[in-house]
Amino acid sequence: MKASLVARLRGPVTAVSAPVLACGLSLAGLGAWTAGGNAGSPPQLAVTEGHVYQRLGNTPETAAFFTVTNTGGSSDRLVAVSSPRTEVPPALSRHRMTRSGAAYRWPVEDVAIPAEKGLLMDPHEIDVTVRPEGDWRLGQRIPFTLHFERGSPLTVLATVVRPGARRT
């Protein structure tokens, strides 16, 4: 009777052992990932640089650029930018080119900020379209608040620079 019981249990035990082993290995891997500080760590955002181009002539708009770092373990999204020194709310935009080579800005709703990396805005990719309130002088510092999907808003000062420059 013992031999028949062992024989009857051998098939189901063998069938169950592979999934149980896979679950155990997965749990061990997740435990190691968590112990390494990666599981669920929130985004850690900082703005390390901000500059805005001085408006040229009668053009109503210009562009602002920010360097956002994310040292956290999860990504975030930049969803809006605001400033008390603009005529209309600033807008996130992407640089585009026509077939004839003319440049234009395309509005975007949000911009990804990858975990353990960040976002570097530049005139050839992502920027913030700005309509200044009055004339901004070179070297002037303009307040902007960057709003994120998950992280707290960050208020920074962007330095007014000549178009094409990174800093004053």
Compose a concise summary of this entry.
The chain has one helix and ten strands. The protein is an alpha+beta fold.
Q: Low-confidence runs (pLDDT<50, min 5 residues)?
A: none
Biggest sheet overview? 10 strands, mixed
Query: For the residues shown, what is the average pLDDT?
Result: 85
Oligomer: single chain
Q: In one word, what is the shape?
A: elongated
CATH topology of the largest domain: Immunoglobulin-like
Secondary structure layout plus pairing:
Blueprint: H1 2-35, E1 45-53, E2 62-70, E3 76-82, E4 91-97, E5 103-107, E6 111-113, E7 117-120, E8 126-130, E9 141-148, E10 154-161
Parallel strand pairs: 1-10
Antiparallel strand pairs: 1-2, 2-7, 2-8, 3-6, 3-9, 4-5, 4-8, 9-10
How would you sum up this structure, described in words?
This protein has 168 residues and is α+β, with helices and mostly antiparallel strands. Strands 1, 2, 3, 4, 5, 6, 7, 8, 9 and 10 form a ten-stranded mixed β-sheet that branches. The longest helix is centred in the N-terminal third of the chain and has 34 residues, at 2-35. The protein has one helix at residues 2-35, and strands at residues 45-53, 62-70, 76-82, 91-97, 103-107, 111-113, 117-120, 126-130, 141-148, 154-161. The protein has two domains: 1-39; 45-161, Sandwich (Immunoglobulin-like), CATH 2.60.40.1890. 20% of the residues lie in helices and 39% in strands. It starts with a helix and ends in a 7-residue tail after the last strand.
